[in-house]
Amino acid sequence: MSTELLAPLDLAFWHLESVGHPMHLGALAFFAPAPGGRSGDGVLDLLATRAAAIRRLRMRVRDVLLPVGGARWTVAKDFDVRRHVHHVRLPDGDFATEAAGIAGELMERPLERGLPPWEMYLLTGESGGPFAVLVKLHHALADGMRAVAIGAGIFDQIADARTVGVKRARTVPPRPWFTGPSQVAGFARGRMEELGRALGVGASVVRASRLDPRGMTALTAGSSGTRRLGTAVLDLEDVQRVRRAVGGTANDVLLAVVAGGLRRWLDERGEQLPAADPRALVPVSQRRPGSPPGSGNKFSAYLLELPVSDPDPRSRLDAVRTAMNRNKAAGPSRGAGALAVLADQLPPLAHRFGAPLAGGAARMLFDVLVTSVPLPRSALSLGGCPLREVYPMAPLARGQSLAIAMSTYDGRVHVGLVADAKALPDLDRLARNLGEELVELLDLTRDASLDIPAR
User: Which part of the chain is the O-acyltransferase WSD1-like N-terminal domain (predicted)?
Assistant: First the structure.
């Protein structure tokens, strides 16, 4: 893969970025020290070596003449992994708190666009103690699933197998300059079909948009350009117990937990409920199994009104399940959530000039992003040090103050909350409210006939 055009959705993310709204994904991973394990410098060297072996991380973006407005991934011939992998020594104190604090600050900084768009930070405290790794990948480089596939190359189990990030993308044979009448007709027919699909999706997005957003003001406050990271850990078995009791999916339960957590948070703040329930954008992967790392972003999204105004936790869960079933029946190409599908239908020039304008329209579409990022099910380690916790982080859209990402690992759901630091200075309170909401849901759905034991 020496060169490769950016897919339309990748190009949209590349041009959506601004200084106050960097478009990178992230993950903060905590590792336990291993007996006789590597020192901080040893882990840093290991990170650098493994990152340098992931071919996708050597690619940078370059503009092209054709197609007009397009860009291409090219191998950075002057690639130096040490410009991307850094070591930060944290002050004494609670390591997890200090690491989350510095991770929020590091997430504020946009990636340097002339370089391959990624960074890794090794965060260490006292010698021989636990350490953390912060990974930043530009959204143009990968969606959530592909980010996991690329970033997983640093782990012992995957780096040793040498199966992640080294596959070559399938090349597309060049088109001839001269074509016959049948090829011209086929090309025109294909463009008309694409235009028809784009118009249908676009009309659906417009119909679902709100010209007068009246959601939670805390979630749509003016941007300060600052970032804060909050974390929460939910027991996966508790989530599954609730699911088994009421039906639906584990993701339905987690979305209901988010709705209830937001309601609790508003109540503790002494704020009134919003005139309209906040809208959540729930991404849905459309990536096919086995697709190569260079295949670009592949997702759409569902739009969900979080039932924050409903005082009954069980009723909130029922409302979420009903709404998600309706979304799945309609498909991911309808509603404001289909904006990603629409972006995939537009030509490069439209992204170059339209993305900055479209970025400002996010507030009319949704109030908060809630996404799930799948992780490998097997135990992972780095230099023999076991991975204990991993918190995914999603970017903030312009005009929004909170993004929530969740990953399941080692029997627990790790929740990463990224917020505008000035708009949500009490993010830790919201993180705590999520755990309290799950406990209440578990209590409400517990029944002797369901064999759900007390905790």
Answer: 6-253
